[in-house]
Amino acid sequence: MWVLVVLALIAGAGLVYALVTAPQFRIVAVETHIEGRLIARSEVLARAEIGDGENIWLIHTHAAAGRIEAIPYVLDARVERRLPATVAITVTQRTPAACLAGPAPLTIDATLRVLQDGCARPDLIHIDVPAPPAVRPGSTIDDPALGALVRDTATLAGAGIVLRTAGRDGFGQVVVTDATGVQMLFGDDADLATKAALVAPIRQAAKRPLRAIDLRAPATPVVSYR
C-alpha cells in the first residue's frame, strides 16, 4: 500500500507543478467593478498586488481582498479567479453619513469608520463633538455616544427631516437644526421616531416661520417663531 501512496503523492505533486507552471494560467487581465465614484481603480489594483504574468493559482484571493478593504472608502471587496487567466475584483463603496465638525473635521459613515479628512460634501450632516478624535482615515471611532447620535440622525432622516447639524446639549439630549434653520429639541433618544413624526404636522399648522420646535415633552410640544 505504501508504494501506491507514494505514487499518488508523486502524481499529485506533478499535477500541482503543472498547474503552477502552465503558461495558460498566467494572468493576462485584472478586471475591476467598483460600485461608487470615490474609490480609484489605480489604488484598488495597487492594494491587490496582482501582477500580469503571475500564476492564477498562486494568488491569495482573501489576502488581496483584505488589503483592498483597508482603503477607507471600501465596504467590501471580492477577488475571484476566472479561468484560465483573468482575475475579477468587485468593490463596494461606503456611504458618507456625517461630518464631525471642528478645527480638524472628519467624514464618517454609519459605522463610525473614518472615510477621509475634511467634509466630503457640503450637504452632509455636521455633528458637533467637543473634540473630534485624532484618528486616521480607515480606522473606526470607538464612541458609543457618537454612534447613538449617528443612528438618531438616520431615524430623523427616515422621518423626512433634512438635517443641517446635530449634537447634544449639556445634558446629553438631542438637538438638531434642519435645512431651513429651524432648531429642534428632542430630549433623550427614547421614542425618537414618535417625536419626529410630530414635526411635519407642527410645520403644517404653523402660521408664521418657525424658529424652534421643542419636543422634549411630546404630549405638549412648544414652538417659537422668528
Task: Tell me what you see in this structure.
The chain has 6 helices and 12 strands. By secondary structure, the chain is of the alpha/beta class. The chain has 2 domains: 68 residues, Ubiquitin-like (UB roll), CATH 3.10.20.310; 128 residues, 3-Layer(aba) Sandwich (Rossmann fold). A hairpin with a 5-residue loop joins β8 and β9. The relative contact order is 0.09. About 2% of the residues have low confidence.
Poorly predicted runs of 5 or more residues: 4-8
State the fourth-level CATH superfamily of the largest domain.
Cell division protein FtsQ/DivIB
Mean pLDDT score: 89
Report the sheet-strand fraction: 25-35%
Tell me the structural class: alpha/beta
Main sheet record = 9 strands, mixed
Number of strands: 12
CATH architecture name of the largest domain: 3-Layer(aba) Sandwich
Portion in helices:
25-40%
Write down the CATH class of the largest domain.
Alpha Beta
CATH fold label of the largest domain: Rossmann fold
N-end to C-end Cα span: 94 Å
Keywords:
Ubiquitin-like (UB roll), 28% helix, alpha/beta, 226 residues, 6 helices, 9-stranded mixed sheet, Rossmann fold, elongated
